[in-house]
Amino acid sequence: MILKNENRIKLNQGSPAPTDNSVTMASEKHKMKLSKSILEMKFMKRTKEKVDQQLFQTEGEEYFENQLTTRLKKESGQYLIEPSFVECEKLIEGRLSFQGMNPEVEKLLAAEDNEKRAKLEKLKEEISENQMVNHYKACNPTMRNRNKKRRTWVHPSERNGKQNSKKTRFMKPPDV
Questions:
Q1: pTM (2 d.p.)
Q2: Mean pLDDT in residue range 55-74
Q3: Residue 175 CA neighbour count, 13 Å, CB half
Q4: N or C: which end of the chain has fewer CB within 10 A?
């Protein structure tokens, strides 16, 4: 038990020593608030600023605590939580049998393999050949148009608009 007497704290023998946190928490609970009229007086400006700053901090903490929890809830769908690393490492779970030592387990493993193969075949045939043909037929005209737009190489002198109308002929060298 804690007894206050003339700015001293005395402890009875049966009670544990108080921690700093417990004393400060008790003082925060019983802290009195100053009235608005007192805070508006000139000599209380600093105190008013401190009180406003404390209110702003507590409101901000409350606001961001709510934001943090909602943000975590929204983003929780992006991650999968696995209780074991077996799935992450793609390890085989359960019992195994080699060379016919346990035929029951081998039958179960064979059945699982057949199911996996069936799923893979369905995935492979998800886009049929007819759909692929139709898709490429639709794309073919755009490919042709893309090739039509390509320009042939033109000599830089002809780009300026100066085009020679006469073709150059082979001239005999003069006899000397």
A1: 0.25
A2: 76
A3: 0
A4: C
